């Protein structure tokens, strides 16, 4: 999608005050590199599924301060009542066109803590003013695609229908959630606009109100079957669920006489394990062994896992609220940090932010991630500084605990996860108009990526940690920088 209006003001004011500062100091063009990453996978899980790059690229392509943006900025005042921004700076913004380089993990890539999902390199002013929107887009979509991957993992590949629009966080939240849920593994959405906009399959049943609007349930099913003979999933729990299933079987027989087949039934309350087992028997004995049982009602990955453990005969899972709102963790804490700045001599100077918590101390450099695998499977991921290359010792060191190290075996081959997306402000890969083929390819990538992960890393509770570490050369530089900063502060 190409945004019709500029979204350059979709930012925090402080990005613009810093930009104004860089401009006034004559530093706007100084080259810098920033990395977008998260520190903990969401939902206490072992991984995340990167998503949001498509819309992020659309945002970057449309990025400009148009006349109305600049006019608005002229109205902002400082605490002396005078204009907040200099006229010269606002002229600079109106002329500004992105010239930076962006590298990122393609959507559907499995990502782990500390790894850059996006790297932006270019004039510091440009890198800085992109922070908020990139975080807004990538954080939410990565969160939802990860939730969808967990839910789809729990169903063991049985289709998940995303039903979340009515509970989603507003209009854009609903659309973005449907998109990301599909990338993460959902089979379809009930969100028709998302279907149109992103080429996602749309599916649905009917609501209780349909049944309630008739005097009795049988009539409701028959009338629905007459109106929609090729889309019959009867919602059977308005009054008594198993009685509802019996009526659905009878309605299905009448439909069959007309040359159509009912798709199945939907359960939306009560004990879904018991009811699905009993409903299955009624459907099978009634001559509908192929009828599908759809279930919904505040489902999430944990309830689904429990239902499967109880032998539930559910074949299609409708999941709304807990998926589209990422109910148990409503935000991914992705951050965007400065990694290095180019000095006057044109050398990259790595930059470090210290923290009391080792894991929160930033990783300096111009970072890239290399994923290693051998014939046994994935070996581990290395975060390294592209300007220095990989140390020949081929060892990764945990970013939070220097005692945790792993040798990358010589038979392992590596692939860089960050791929070029923009060069000098121009999109260089086909992350352009969202097409059905494109989103289906992305969804397939997620499936391939998850298929390569060890099952223990995908475990819902207390997952095994996939090995991720800093290239030992980068670790030593960072360690030295930490010592120097601590020394300066007399620690
Ligand atoms: N066998 C089961 N094991 C575990 N959880 C279940 C089982 N059956 C249903 N659930 C889940 O338990 C919760 C049921 O909540 P609740 O009892 O409020 O729903 P209900 O019986 O459908 O009532 P309501 O009519 O208000 O929806 C839902 O999240 C549902 O998905
Ligand atoms: O439960 P979710 O995962 O959010 O899935 C969507 C829910 O939306 C619909 O009902 P709605 O919640 O509007 O009404 P109900 O609770 O009375 O069924 C539907 O029947 C599902 O239960
Ligand atoms: O089609 C459905 O069954 C549906 C759609 C949205 C929300 N709940 C259910």
TrEMBL record:
It catalyses: 5-phospho-alpha-D-ribose 1-diphosphate + nicotinate + ATP + H2O = nicotinate beta-D-ribonucleotide + ADP + phosphate + diphosphate. Keywords: Glycosyltransferase, Ligase, Phosphoprotein, Pyridine nucleotide biosynthesis, Transferase. InterPro entries: Aldolase_TIM, N/Namide_PRibTrfase, NAPRTase_C, NAPRTase_N, Nic_PRibTrfase-Fam, Nic_PRibTrfase_pncB, Nicotinate_pribotase-like_C. GO terms for molecular function: nicotinamide phosphoribosyltransferase activity; nicotinate phosphoribosyltransferase activity. One of its GO terms (cellular component) is cytosol. Catalyzes the first step in the biosynthesis of NAD from nicotinic acid, the ATP-dependent synthesis of beta-nicotinate D-ribonucleotide from nicotinate and 5-phospho-D-ribose 1-phosphate. It holds the Pfam family NAPRTase_N. The keyword Oxidoreductase does not apply. The keyword Calcium does not apply. Pathway: Cofactor biosynthesis; NAD(+) biosynthesis; nicotinate D-ribonucleotide from nicotinate: step 1/1. Residues 370-476 form the Nicotinate phosphoribosyltransferase C-terminal domain. Its EC number is 6.3.4.21. Residues 184-341 form the Nicotinate/nicotinamide phosphoribosyltransferase domain. Residues 9-139 form the Nicotinate phosphoribosyltransferase N-terminal domain. This is Nicotinate phosphoribosyltransferase. It comes from Posidoniimonas corsicana. CDD domains: NAPRTase_A. Transiently phosphorylated on a His residue during the reaction cycle. Phosphorylation strongly increases the affinity for substrates and increases the rate of nicotinate D-ribonucleotide production. Dephosphorylation regenerates the low-affinity form of the enzyme, leading to product release. GO terms for biological process: NAD+ biosynthetic process via the salvage pathway. Belongs to the NAPRTase family.
